[in-house]
Amino acid sequence: MDMSANLPPLPTLRVFEAAARHLNFTRAGEELGMTQAAVSYHIKLLEERIGATLFVRHGRKIELTDTGSTLAPALSGAFRSIANAFDAAKSKTGSTLSISAVPTVSTQWLARRLGAFQVSHPELAVRLEMSTDLVDFDNDDIDVGIRVGLGEYPGLVSHFLFKAEYAPMLSPALAASIGGIETPADLLKLPFVSEGELWNAQWLELVGLPRPDVVRGLNVNFGSQYLDAAAAISGAGIAMLTPALYREELRDGRLIQPFDIVGVDPVSYWLVYPHARRTLPKIRAFRDWLLAEAQSLQNQPI
């Protein structure tokens, strides 16, 4: 049985609760953003629904009748329970920021910087999930996503982070094994990680070298930059990587980038989230912080 079918409209109950609390129709109207006449109208509707008078006037003052005195505390308690439940739900969703990001961005950029975000926002707990799958914001417990694409995501707000650039990188030991890398053609003497990777072909064509059918490969496709990078650091081969994401490995010498020539993929990295959630404080805070970090990343020299 649907018990709500017997209830008066919620706005009418809200008006009565405010009028009973203030014992003044004018102040109740001010609280609810309506006129005194509108308050009186709602009270009349409720009295007709109940079949009893709820207020009596004594000069300029009003008092609750016995029926009104019975109803008022029950409604006040009900509205407090609703407010408490809403605050609890809001607190639960507002205190945790859930991020879904592609693996390379997660490991090479975001995870290394999230500590600084949490220091600035200690009220937020951050949960980072690595995934190549597109987020279903309606069903997944995710607030924001970082994805690779063209920035066209229906129903979502998208913010450009940085371009998907690429250049060949390898371990110093592998370069030394052939006496060093002097020209792009020297790369063809070594195996490439993920030999079927499109970036290999595009970069080699960019510098005027043959198609990758003459490139020695490992006969394996890792399918992710961070795995390609791990293989390259171990000396297994040359990997096409985004230079901005491997600054630390380049600085400490685990990887070298022999040439400044970089290719630029049509896709880029984007921050995305539902349009309906764009005003949530936690999303605004993360958006502002992440866009500043992305700008800083682009301004730093390799």
The count of domains is 2
How far apart are the first and last residues' alpha carbons, in Å? Answer: 68 Å
Q: How large is the count of helical segments?
A: 11
CATH C-level of the largest domain: Alpha Beta
Radius of gyration: 31 Å
Question: What structural class do you assign from the helix and strand content?
Answer: alpha/beta
Give the biggest beta sheet: 6 strands, mixed
Q: What strand order characterises the main sheet?
A: 4-3-5-8-6-7
The residue fraction in helices comes out at: 40-55%
Beta strands, count: 8
CATH architecture grouping of the largest domain = 3-Layer(aba) Sandwich
Average pLDDT for all residues: 87
Gross morphology is rod-shaped
**Fold-level CATH name of the largest domain:** D-Maltodextrin-Binding Protein, domain 2
Strand content: 15-25%
Keywords: DNA-binding, Transcription, Transcription regulation
Organism: Pelagibacterium halotolerans (strain DSM 22347 / JCM 15775 / CGMCC 1.7692 / B2)
Protein name: Glycine cleavage system transcriptional activator
Pfam family, one: LysR_substrate
Describe the 3D structure.
It is a single chain. With 302 residues, the chain is of the alpha/beta class. The protein has two domains: 3-94, Orthogonal Bundle (Arc Repressor Mutant, subunit A), CATH 1.10.10; 96-302, D-Maltodextrin-Binding Protein, domain 2 (3-Layer(aba) Sandwich), CATH 3.40.190. The protein has eleven helices and eight strands. It has helices at 10-22, 25-32, 36-50, 66-94, 103-110, 114-120, 172-176, 198-206, 225-233, 247-251, 281-299, and strands at residues 55-58, 61-64, 96-101, 125-130, 144-149, 156-169, 239-241, 263-274. Strands 4-3-5-8-6-7 form a six-stranded mixed beta sheet, with helices on both faces. Strands 1-2 form a two-stranded antiparallel sheet. Helix 1 crosses helix 4 (66-94) and helix 2 (25-32) crosses helix 3.
